[in-house]
Amino acid sequence: MKRYRPHLFVAITLAIVLLGGWHGGLRHDLADLRFTLQSRQPSGDIVVVAIDAPSIDQIGVWPWPRTLHAELIRQLQKAGVRDIALDVDFSTPSDSLSDRNFAEALERAGGSVVLPSFQQPRTDRTNLHVNRPLQQFAEHSWPALVNVEVAPDGLVRRYPFGEKLDGTFVPSMATILAGQYAEKRAPFLIDYSIRAAGIPKVSFVDVLRGDEATLRKLSGKKVIVGGTALELGDRFSVPNGAILSGPVLQALAAESLLQNRVLQWTSDAVTAAGLMLLAVTMLITWRRLSAGRRVALLVATALALETVALALQAAFPFILDTSLFHIACIVYVAAIALDEINIRALLGKVAENRFQRVAMSLGDGLICTDSKYVITDWNPGATAIFGYPPEVMIGRPFDEICARELPSATSAFSIDNIARLPSGSVIEFDGRRSNGEVFPVEASFSRWQGADGYQFGAILRDISVRRREAAKIQYLAEHDTLTGLINRHTLLTRLAGMIAKARVESHEVALLVVGLEGFQQINQMLGHASGDLVLRAISERLTARIPESGIVARLNGDEFAIAARLADIGSSIKNYAEQIGASFHAPLLAGNRDHRVRVSIGAAVFPDGGGTADELLSNSHMALSRAQATQRGGHVLFEDSIRRDLETRLTLEAELAAAVNRDEFELFYQPQLHLADGRLIGAEALIRWHHPIRGLIAPAGFMPVVNTSPISERIAKWVLNTACAKAAAWERSGHTIRIGVNLSPSMFNSGDLADTVQQALASSGLSPTNLELEVTEDILLHDEKGALDTFLTIQKLGVRIVFDDFGTGFASLSYLKKFPLDGLKIDQSFVFGLLANPDDAAIVSSTIGLSRQLGLSVIAEGIEDRATADLLVKMGCEEGQGYFFGRPVPASEFEARFLRDPIAAEVA
């Protein structure tokens, strides 16, 4: 039994180590050591476009608008890159213009862009949430997983080929770039012998501004775009003490794939065979060789094995697991030493030497004291932090490095306080350098029982930079970077505090939301730099108008907010809003230019105008919307009626959306006749709504809401297609009449009106000359040039364009000159008073005469009696419509009354 005792000791130790998984750390350390002994250069095919500190500083804002990423993609395409991977989160919407710009850039890239998906814990910490790119981005890009596995020791070693997200396999970003992704392949070990420092990097801002030298470096490369700046926090700890940014880590994983370095551990069978061979060798030599020779044999075997492992790891994509073999060698040495050396003394010396090595190699400061707090150890890190050499500080009290007695200190810390704290406590205090400078220190204290009583140790860090960065990050999180005002989040926090105090003290709190009128025109005409100057000047003017206890915040691009106690304003909220508005009557000096800026104001007062900060801000916004809709440049105080109106509108919008899906709309048709002989020449298509409760609703009851809602374009296209289909059916049955369709603003805003009209004609088979589109002035005001181009395209199809409601706008005559119109409709407000009002008669007569000179057809609306029709004929008006000839009726009734025979439209 004594003969086999060392070997049993080794076997039991290995079993304990194996069951406890304690060999894992050694296994990783050995593999990491081999990485440091090898050096592989990157292929150069992967280039990192770094969102670095210079890029953030030069652009000046964070987070960046997605227009910058769109421009980056264009520049990369210009440089001729092969693939583009963006390690940037695109899972949440930004402003619609930036998102549309970015989506267009992705579409132009033709599917060569990879966007990240990743999992993160939900707020309940029990489930994972999958963050994916927005749908409009995902349609034109490749999805890629960017999650990496962090080992229990906090290091990233393994990299997955992909993972199933919601049942769908998503490959990892590096595997897509390398073109080697597969669903069933196991994660691999990244080859850290490939030097991360050798991976080519270029700055985001250099690519963005199109630097030619930078773009040449990217030609034919695959690109990963991501944050490398320290303040972005996208960093990972990797073996051998290195810290890599997210995009560099992805690039390193891609390089491992490209260089066929998909590393895997050797199997357990190889390890077992090596251990058995070692055990047989020790059994044979245990009594044949002296202790020294056995130790030498074990050391030589271990070194030889490591040499082989190093060579194999360098030549082939696998890592030989030698951890258990080395542990077995160590345990065998221990077994030999049990009889040959003084273990206690040796272990003590080893521990002391190891402590000294660790202490001297630490980058942090390490200070040890005896039971009286006199310094006994002082490492180079402590010298770097405090400036004192070891020979000066050893033997002196620990408190000499504390600044508790200086006026500039903010902490009264003394090491005496440590006795009352548990071992391992981490505290912050003010330290003092050798030059007298006071700075913040973070210290982790421990104590242990020594031969002469308790002894103490402290690991110290200089946290000056961390404090400054934390303060900067907090400022950026709470303030608007352009104006220096607090942002929306901070406003809500402070407003909540004001409301809580107001509840206790029973006073009122006023909140005013100030919206700029026409600010977009300043940006468009003068540029965003001038717009920024205007915003700063506005913030200064608003700040000058608030009481001492008030606060000013910037909510978004052209909205600001003022919050103050009503008692501190010195007047009523109405008067104060008028004063704010009046303060902008004077020109606003921004740079070297005066600007005229007009503001609208919405206000709400706690408690009547809202019981919480969110409610107060929401109600102020509603009041601002009312002010901008009814009296631009004025002010509105929130009332419950405003919310009721909004709720009514929202209810109507919901009912309209349901009505579209339930096919509750119908087109009615009103006849248009030739006034001289009563011939039917056309019909105007007018929409009606069959409400399930309110019955038939005319357009005035719902179209104002439709025209400003998301379903407007859908309903407008339905009207156009339905009217064309019905007119085409009449045309095929021998009744060739003109059909009039009113255009909506949404059809112009969509930008594809001409295509929509062409498709409606093609699908219905209607002759283009039998379609008449009626346009109103409010549509033309939005984009005159775009409207002109669209009209010209439509007229080339043969479709007529008529100016509706003529005479009611501000620039009707100028539009007759600007736009290629075929006719105009005299508004019924003039026709109603034609017989009794000489002014109306003069206007109608002049309009008819003007139209004849311009070669335009004229149709009069609102004819309700024979006398009016006869007078219009005398004035030279050829066409008319109104209740006298027929009210708008369903298609079936229209056909029965007016299409039975060619003379059926004549009025008896």
Considering the chains and any ligands shown, give keywords for the structure:
single chain; 908 residues; disordered C terminus
Walkthrough of the structure:
- Helix 28 packs parallel to helix 30 (784-796).
- The model is unreliable at 902-908 (pLDDT under 50).
- The strands form nine sheets. The chain has an eight-stranded mixed β-barrel, surrounded by four helices.
- The longest helix is centred in the middle third of the chain and has 25 residues, at 291-315.
- Helix 31 links the parallel strand 33 and strand 34 (823-826).
- By secondary structure, the chain is of the alpha/beta class.
The chain-level structural class is alpha/beta
Q: Please, what is the oligomeric state?
A: single chain
User: What is the arithmetic mean of pLDDT?
Assistant: 83
Q: How many DSSP-defined strands?
A: 37
Quick structural overview:
The protein has 908 residues and is of the alpha/beta class. It contains 35 helices and 37 strands.
List strands and helices in order, with pairings.
Blueprint: H1 5-20, H2 23-37, E1 46-51, H3 53-59, H4 66-79, E2 83-87, H5 96-109, E3 113-121, E4 128-131, H6 135-138, E5 142-145, E6 158-159, E7 162-165, E8 168-171, H7 173-178, E9 188-189, E10 201-203, H8 204-208, H9 212-218, E11 222-227, E12 235-238, E13 242-245, H10 246-258, E14 264-265, H11 268-285, H12 291-315, E15 318-319, H13 323-340, H14 343-361, E16 365-369, E17 375-378, H15 380-386, H16 390-393, E18 426-432, E19 438-450, E20 453-462, H17 464-478, H18 488-505, E21 509-517, H19 519-526, H20 528-544, E22 551-556, E23 559-565, H21 566-569, H22 573-582, E24 588-590, E25 593-595, E26 598-606, H23 613-630, E27 635-637, H24 640-662, E28 665-674, E29 680-691, E30 695-697, H25 703-706, H26 712-732, E31 738-742, H27 745-749, H28 753-764, E32 771-775, H29 777-782, H30 784-796, E33 800-806, H31 812-818, E34 823-826, H32 828-832, H33 838-854, E35 857-860, H34 866-875, E36 879-880, E37 889-890, H35 891-898
Parallel strand pairs: 1-10, 1-11, 2-3, 2-11, 3-5, 14-15, 26-27, 29-31, 31-32, 32-33, 33-34, 34-35, 35-36
Antiparallel strand pairs: 3-4, 6-9, 7-8, 12-13, 16-17, 16-20, 18-19, 19-20, 21-23, 21-26, 22-23, 24-25, 28-29, 28-36, 28-37, 29-30
